[in-house]
Every structure is written in C-alpha cells, then in structure tokens.
Amino acid sequence: MTDYDVVVVGLGPTGLTLANLLGRRGVRVLVLEREPEYYGLARAVYTDDEGMRVFQTAGAADELAANMNHDSTVQWVRRDGRPLAQFHQTARPLGWPVVNFLYQPYLETTLERALTRYPRVHVRRGREVVGFDQDETGVEIEHHACDGIGYGNRAPESAPGTVERVRAQFLIGCDGGRSVVRTRLGIPMSGTSYPERWLVVDLKARDGVDAFRHLPYFDFVCDPELPIVSCPQPGGHHRFEFMLREAQTKEEMEDPDTVHRHIARFVDPGEVEVLRKLVYTFNAVVADRWRVGRVLLAGDAAHMTPQFIGQGMNSGVRDADNLAWKLAAIIEHGAAHSILDSYETERRPHAQAMIDLSVLMKNFVSMRNPVAAKARDAAIVTALRVPGLGGWIKAAKMKPAPRFRRGAYLGLPRRGWGGVEGALAPQPQVRSYDGRHCRLDDVLGTGFAVLGAGVDPLTVLSADDQVALRALGTRFVTVYPHGGRPQGMPGDGRPVGTSDIEDHTGVLTRWLRRSGAGRGGIVLLRPDRYVFGVAAPGRSTDLVAEWRRQLALPAAAKLPEEVR
C-alpha cells in the first residue's frame, strides 16, 4: 500500500509539467517544494514547438500561448545593430510556433493553477525532502517544514518536530541543479563548468510607456568588446545579458550605476524598471545516472544546459513528457518497470546534443578576439550566399531533431536512414467530417494511438490485439486524404469505435506514405507522439505483438472484464 503513486520533488517547470501530465492521466501525485512562496522572477525565456506540444498534452498550451511572443526573428547582429544573419522559423510542423518567448512567472503560475483541476494531485510548499529509502514495492520519503533557501540566496532552516513520512511507488527528483535527490543518491555530474560570467538584467516598461518597440527581435550582439543578448518578452518585459571581462567584479557589475550605463545603450533608463540584476556563470553537465530503482532524476537535476539557445527548461519539459506516460503505463496498466530503462537512453543523447549546441553558440557569439570576430563575420556572410547552406542556416537546421538514437528507444527498429520509428510524428491541422479544424493531438488524446492510412484500424487488427490496445486507452483514428472520405449510401463511412479525420493540408498523408505504412497500413504512436512502429497491410499482428512484448503487458485474461 502506498499513500501516492508518485512523489515529485520540485515545483519548477519540469515538476509542474510532470505533475500536470500525471494528473491528467489519473495518477495520484504529491509535489513537495521547499520554497514556501513562489519566486516570481524570470529565469527561462523561451520554449519551442516541442515544448508547446507537451503543454498541449498537459491541457495548458492555449492558455500559455496567450501570454507569449510568437514567431520572432532571431538574429546575430553587429555592434551597430546591422544584422549578420537572421533566422526565420515560421513553419509549424508540430502544430505550434517554433519560436515562443515567454515570461516564466506567467508560465509557472498558469501550470500551478492548472493542477487544481486534478483532485488526485496535491501540492505542499515549504516542505523539504531530508531522506528516502526504497525497497521492492516502493519508496519511503521523509520531509519536514522548511522556510526555503530564497532560491539559492540563503541556507535553509527547518522547523523541529515537523517531520512527516509518505510512501509512494516512485520518487522523481525535479529539484534543480542543487538537487537534494541526486545528492542523496550519490550521483555525480560530468561535464564542464564555465568561468565566463554574465550580467543578466530583467526590465519592465513603466506603465503607459512603449519602451521596447525599437527592439522587436531576439539579438545576439556579436561585439568583441561586449557580447550582449537582447531578448523580447511578453507583457512589457525585456531581458539583457552582458558578458563580463575578467577584471570586472560581481559587485561592480551589479551596482545600479553600472546597470544604468549598460542598458542606456539600448533603452531610456527612465522608461524602465529594473526587476532583477544578477551575475552568474553556467554549467554544461549531465548526471552520470538518471535512475536508481524507483528513484529518477529529471530537468536540471539530470542535466544543466547553458542558456544560449534557450533549451534548458525545454529539455526538462521533454523529460517530463517521456517519463509521464511510462509511469502511468506501469501504475495504471501493469506495464513492466523495465520500460523506465528507456528513459535515459532516449533522453540523454538529445539533452547532451542540446548542451553541445549551446556551448557552440556561446563560443560563436562571445568571441573576444577582434581578428577572430572579423573572420567569423566574414564566414557568416559567405556561408549565407552558398546555395543550400544559406537556407540551412536561416532555418536553424543545426538544432538537434526530435529523433531517438537508433537501437536506444522503446519501439520497433528504425528501417533505413529515413525511417520514422523512434521519431516525433508531425502534428498538422486536420479536418473533422463536419468541416471543423483541430490539431491532430486533440483527436489522439493522451494515450497510445493507432493511425490507419485510409483504413479503419479496427478492420486490420485482430480481436485480441484490439483488446490489448484498448486496455491502455488507445485511440483508433482513420486518416483520409483530402477529398477521400467514403461517399454513397446512407450509413457509409460511419466509424464504429474509431475517430476519422481528413488531412486537408496533405502533411499527414505524405508522412504516412513516407513512413512505409502504404494505403491500408497502420502507424502506432506512443503517448508522447513518437512513433513506436509501422505496419504495412497484413503486418499489424507483428507490430502489436512487439508492442506487448516491450511493455510486458498482462495477458488478455488478466485484463478487466469491461475491457475484455
């Protein structure tokens, strides 16, 4: 017996996302956060289309999107503001803008408010985890009252006599770079801590003042004298980051006069309020292990990403998405604990690739040597003129793709270089039979999904396979090409036990064709919308058999009567 299914430690973006994803799936969750009050200041400033798709699964994306800056141009600029290169990413392959600048307090308060929808999710602030032990059936967690650490500004003080114990099936450490969970597991982090220091200044336009209209885009100011980041944010907010020289001290740079002098290059200091000024360094490190039995790490507790491509928070959001459905499959449906082995093998390579790209970007935009900086600028101008290469750069194709490493994921082996197995499926707008448009995932729900390429999936699946898939809440969806719906006599085309959609953009039809499903084949999508496998016509039994084997699901005879 356990008090909860999952205890989540930490109420930052990773913990909030995980708690929402688990809550939406009916899992009993306790979230423990040592800070008694919300921080209220920005740290992360950006999320991408992958992150927005996860928030969509969590049921919060539309509300979050209403408070974001979308589709901004990102650019490398010279000292005088002239662009060296511009990145335009306006396509929506995953159903959301690729570029979304945010104000983190808006994001976190929205996600925390969303948790109130789930009666099986409980949040307790001002509670610090002081120990835990695990056995074959669960984890015993000990926590006590805490006045917090001021988000790194002071040592915690605990209240004597407030110790409580709770038992859960799993413990997930989403408690940041100073993770108590990781520390108590004795897991070191490997990588590099960089000595370069940056001054971050968060600004807010004063009431009634349009202080930032002349700074509409995200700028990397590639000035060897003073590398700078200028970031637009919603709600009249803006962030600057200035790279320090070795001789400059933290006290000097955080002095109000110094801050005033630096921001005056870009804004009228009298039109803005300084919300935060802080000198920081950054780390590019990854925990040596992400799982010890029933205890797992996620977000900054597992990996820390330099800020230069805005992927630190997003890597944690991806962790939460990967973990949530696997935990739910184990807790709610009896899947084997071994599926958690794929968490690290799937997520570590992608998180490391994001770290490596962030370090590369840091080195690129913060060159101090004037000769090297001139050579960089000339190389950029030349590369942008090269056919193919210029388009590749402008579309930011250097960003790691959402595609698991071959042989390291839960799913069928990838077939050939262009195989879709282990890759994230697209999310186009689709059309219902009565002409309404919606995003694909809104049809698929939060569980597994079977897409039929012009065919009702239930007509190609055996009765036993249908039972096994239905037991995990799988949805079955027929995908018709534009203009390809059944026509004829009354009753023709009415789905029974399935949904049907029309691919009016052609995106999904082309992807299904490229996947190898062919007309009449099926594609099995995981709850995180990565492809588990593809079955051409007549091969669906093999696909479902491998799905059942990898998840080690109970036999049909053990399934609930209403499912059988």
Written overview of the protein:
- The structure is a single chain.
- The protein is 28% helix and 26% strand.
- It has 564 residues and is an alpha/beta fold.
- Strands 1, 2, 8, 9, 10, 11, 17 and 18 form an eight-stranded mixed beta sheet that branches.
Task: Indicate the topology.
Elements lengths: L3 E6 L3 H12 L4 E5 L12 E2 L1 H9 L3 H5 L2 E3 L3 E4 L5 E5 L12 E3 L1 H11 L6 E5 L1 E8 L4 E7 L18 E10 L6 H6 L3 E17 L12 E4 L6 E6 L3 E7 L6 H4 L2 H8 L8 E16 L3 E2 L2 E3 L5 E2 L7 H22 L7 H25 L4 H16 L3 H6 L34 E3 L5 E3 H5 L4 E5 L9 H9 L3 E7 L17 E5 L3 H9 L6 E4 L5 E5 L4 H12 L13
Parallel strand pairs: 1-2, 1-11, 2-8, 5-13, 11-18, 22-23, 23-24
Antiparallel strand pairs: 3-7, 4-7, 5-6, 9-10, 10-11, 12-15, 12-16, 13-14, 14-15, 16-19, 17-18, 20-21, 22-25, 25-26
Helix pairs in contact: 1-4, 1-8, 8-9
List keywords for this structure.
564 residues, alpha/beta, 8-stranded mixed beta sheet, globular
Low-confidence stretches: none
Rounded Rg = 25 Å
Which structural class fits the helix and strand makeup?
alpha/beta
Shape: globular
